[in-house]
Specification:
single chain, about 120 residues, alpha+beta, Aspartate Aminotransferase, domain 1, 6-stranded antiparallel beta sheet
């Protein structure tokens, strides 16, 4: 990721910044990934499509194929992502117990990328 694409720390909460730092470390050698401030956290975009992100509270926001949501919900810490009181189709939040280790976080990112790579570039 290029330094110019990095979101300033003051723009997000400390919890979100901590999670964003972990994601950055995993995606560090991926110049095609761009960061964007969104939803009170940081989104990591692949070809203009959101791959993963952070919530303001520091959870992982995971983008999954709509037809694989039930499968993904079986993973530790996964829950349907809501915007206000409405569920967000194809987006899950993943709590700490599902991403305690960097390997677990990297696995979620890879899981999300499997779907996001099928989307047309924006």
């Amino acid at each position: 990721m290029s330094a110019t694409a990095t979101v300033e720390k003051s723009d997000v909460s400390a919890a979100s910044d901590e999670m964003a730092g972990r994601i950055r470390a995993i995606l560090a050698d991926r110049p095609e990934i761009v960061e964007k401030k969104m939803f009170g956290g940081v989104g990591f975009m692949l070809n203009g499509n959101m791959l993963v992100g952070t919530t303001a509270k520091g959870a992982l926001m995971a983008r999954v194929a709509p037809d694989r949501v039930e499968e993904a919900l079986a993973r530790p810490g996964a829950a349907i992502m809501h915007m206000g009181d409405k569920p967000m189709k194809g987006f899950l939040s993943v709590a700490d117990q599902g991403i305690e280790t960097d390997d677990a976080l990297a696995d979620w990112i890879a899981y999300c990328e499997t779907f996001v790579r099928t989307l047309p570039p924006k």
